Amino acid sequence: MSYRISVNLLEEKVSDSFLSNLTFIGDNIEKELEQWEHISKFINVNPVIRNVLMTSYDNDLDFYYDMKRVEQQLDTYSINTNIFAYVSSLVVMGNNGRNLLYGADANSLDIDRIKEQDWFSEVNDLNGQVMWLGIHKNIANYRTQNESVIALGRAIKGDKNDKIIGTLYLTFKESYFTGLLKNIELTDGGRLYIVDNRDHIVFDSDMLLLNEPFIGMEEIRAQEDKGYFLTEGARQEQLLLAHVPISKYDWRVVETVPYASLTKGTDGIFRNTLGVFLISFILTSIIWLFVSSHIVRPIRTLTNSMKKVQEGDWSVRVDIERPDEVGVMYKHFNFMIRRIQELFHSNLEEQEKKKNAEYKALQAQINPHFLYNTLNTIRWMAIIQKSDNIREVVEVLGRLLKNTIKHEGHFVTVEEELSNLRDYVYIQKIRYNNNFDVTYDVQDDLLGMPCIKFILQPIVENAIFHGIEPKEDSRGEIIVSVKRLDDELIIRVRDNGVGMSSEMLEELVKRMESPEASGGIGLSNVKERLKLTYGNSSDFHIRSEKNVFTEIEMIIPIAVSDLRLQESIEVK
């Protein structure tokens, strides 16, 4: 009677390592059986053996000489493998009426009885495949008839059209497995079996049940794959039976272990485990009290301080000094709060400066003097020319003023900044009777790049008023270029006006760097806004040569500009 295992203790005892050992044994046996199949393959393809099986002999002498050649072939093959020592008999029964006999027990076999076996006709229908015949008594009339052997059969085919020319019957001694498995270590009281495809015992570690049917194969085959279960032995004792299949040959590796040996010492283990658990629990409680008083409580104090900071109380400080890591956390927390306060105030100051600069920029955009000059130009055009161009000037002026106030953020795209500049230049060219030209050298892929608004108009205005207007002998020219160099945007405004001497340029730079620098939306205003927005990542250069040129160069980082433009869009 068999029972399914339901006890956790047994599931732990019969672990993966237990079944892995059986799997290892099964894999080795499978490789050994493959070697016996290789012998059958050698016989099937050997030309000398095939020639003997396909020859019709007129006398026995010729057959005798050919048989000697066959024996030489087998002796030569046996040199390359050590399993030939276990061959009991190797018989090839030819369809030409001749039988090839090899092995110590081959001559004692009853060939006629072999041919009467059920498998003899079946093996010839397997298209040359090997048929394992399992373990059985030698089919002999004397001497070896009581010895157990393991056998296989195979049909031998000729060279042409796969015609069967004979049948191989190969047997080897059961001691082969004894030599193979003699060093296997088993659990105390355990027993190892190898069971063939006919459910007969091929190997028994106790050497008592060879060639006997294995009891319990029905339940083993019901599990299909490897597994284990409880069963009763011959003495009514409970056994744990574990099994692993040798799938290729439908054989099994089986091990039985007395249940008592698995549960032996369980009570002692339980008592020891309980004692260790109680001691561990006491030690853990003591450690927890220590951790709670020296670590958890200080960390809770730090957490409460953090919550107060989250609620807006920036005056919180933790005034506890400790030499350990918690003390370091306190010190870093206090430093972090002080640093955040400093950065907060610094940020407020920067925002205030930006607002002031933005206010100045907006104020300059609607400078009364600029509006007066523009409106005066429109008035004289109306009086003198009586032209519809007045409408165009008014539209440009309206668009310029509209673009000045519609952007609430600090950033616009290069394309929008250039659009504002063109409107401004249009009005100024009318005012100055079109005595200067403005050229734009801008890469198309940079039109969508972000930049600070109102940085080109003040520079161009400075070029017109201080560079082009004082120059009376030739036509003025202003070049506005926007280029990219690596991750930087290079913006240049160059005019061919009166320029500056080195002394004048040096004086201008000093005036711009002075804290009291002012002047509406002039160069100092643009430089200050670049510094407030980009910090040290931006740059502002002035180059000039008297009576030749003046060039303003602004360098701004593209990555920061992209981020600031996105923030500006989100604010809108």
Features:
572 residues; alpha+beta; six-stranded antiparallel beta sheet; five-stranded antiparallel beta sheet; 49% helix; disordered N terminus
Helix-strand category: alpha+beta
Low-confidence spans: 1-7
Largest sheet: 6 strands, antiparallel
Taking strands numbered 1, 2, ... along the chain, how are they ordered across the largest sheet? 1-9-10-11-7-8
What fraction of residues sit in β-strands?
15-25%
Number of strand elements: 18
Task: Provide the residue-averaged pLDDT.
Answer: 80
- Rg calc: 52 Å
Fraction of helical residues: 40-55%
What's the N-to-C terminus distance? 84 Å
Number of helices: 18
Shape: elongated
Question: What is this structure, in a nutshell?
Answer:
Helix content is 49%, strand content 21%. The chain has helices spanning 8-13, 16-45, 47-53, 60-79, 111-115, 118-123, 175-181, 217-222, 259-263, 266-310, 325-365, 368-384, 389-406, 414-431, 456-468, 502-513, 523-534, 558-571, and strands at residues 2-3, 87-94, 99-102, 131-137, 148-157, 164-173, 191-195, 201-204, 227-232, 238-246, 251-258, 411-413, 436-442, 450-452, 476-485, 488-495, 539-545, 549-557.
